[in-house]
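Chain A, query sequence.
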Amino acid sequence: MQMRPEIQIKSILKSMTDVVLPAIDPENQLAQEQAKLCIGLLSLMASQLPLQFRFDCDELARLLALAGKLSEHFPAATPGLQMAVDNGRDVIGRARAEPDEVVSAVRLLRSVTSTAITQAYDTDAADVIANVQQVALDSCKQQNLRDRALLLRQGWEADPDSLPAIETLLAPIDGS
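Chain A, predicted structure.
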């Protein structure tokens, strides 16, 4: 069970290349062609995935520049233009970090919080240990629920209807 799309795509590519494609009857040209098409498309997706966020941000910046020039040369442009520009500026202002920076920050915090929990257990202070244990367990419970909801479509859950939709479990990005 993998959460990161880049790992999922690599796993699918390996399976398609090493297992599925060789198992397809070589005489079935259509099936061979479609399998190769799937492999090619997955390879393309794997190469584009790391750039998609930057691509979208670049497009947003370019459209903001276009809208600014339109407003200069055609001040009577639709009133919705300024509202869209304001929204776009707000969004791009909040999209300053690259996705890999977010993942790196997550990994660093995982490491440091694990160390802090271990250090709390080394204090031999029962109240500290009890409080830290409860905080850690509560956090793990929430993370586990999010992980399971995110991976729901992989089909591993015995009772998929018991899980909330992942969208309901994700906090808005507001810095808190």
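The chain has six helices and no strands. The chain has a mean pLDDT of 89.
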